[in-house]
Amino acid sequence: MLRIAAAGLCGAIIGYERKSRMKEAGIKTHFIVGMGAALMMVLSKYGFMDQRDWDNVSLDPSRIAAQVVSGVGFLGAGMIILQKQTVKGLTTAAGVWSTAGMGMAIGAGLYIVGGGAVVLIVLGQTVLQRSIGRLGQAAAEHVGIRLEDREDAMDDLLAKLKELRVSLVAIETHRDDKGGLAVDLSIKLPSSCDKENVISALHGLRHVRRVEWQ
């Protein structure tokens, strides 16, 4: 029970980071995944001790544990969604899968390995998101936006970019064949904002028809 409780606590720590950023799975989900994985590992190791004295009985203590690795993938798949042409939830799904691995390690009695995994997962979801994640991106991002032909549509768009602290490098506008306004932007994202947040915020504007990240 100590191992299961410890795994649940470590899972809650990982879930707190996800919850603080308003992601799909939070404290309760990671808490239960960590405890469940530890429970399965404890069961796999000690649940059949009374069967070992039987003749002609072959037991493999890794079978239940192996099913956790593949089975938790279905839970992660349910967190990955396609919203407005943008895939969301991949990092959270990977975090849940890693949380299950952490729970299995603690369930097996590998407390240092499990605790170290918690530290690495949380660091990977925070520090890398803020700094190293920007190294692989281009200096300027190109976004195509289709607006309704309204007088305040462009003002709302520019105000939202300013609110997000997005730097506007270049802008081109022209009328499209559907009576709307086509806006081509070259922007630079601040370290505190990522692509998904910008797309979600732009889609939330009342006069925006479509956002295409090029």
UniProtKB/TrEMBL annotation:
Q: Where are the transmembrane segments?
A: 25-43, 64-82, 102-124
The family classification in the record reads: Belongs to the MgtC/SapB family.
Q: Which Pfam families match?
A: MgtC (PF02308)
Task: Tell where it localizes.
Answer: Cell membrane
Say which domain of life the source belongs to.
Answer: Bacteria
Protein name in UniProt: MgtC/SapB family protein
According to the UniProt record, one GO cellular component term is: plasma membrane
Kindly give the membrane topology term recorded for this protein: Multi-pass membrane protein
Which residues does the UniProt record annotate as the domain MgtC/SapB/SrpB/YhiD N-terminal? 5-129
Instruction: Give the source species.
Output: Cohnella rhizosphaerae
Any idea which UniProt keywords this protein has? Cell membrane, Membrane, Transmembrane, Transmembrane helix
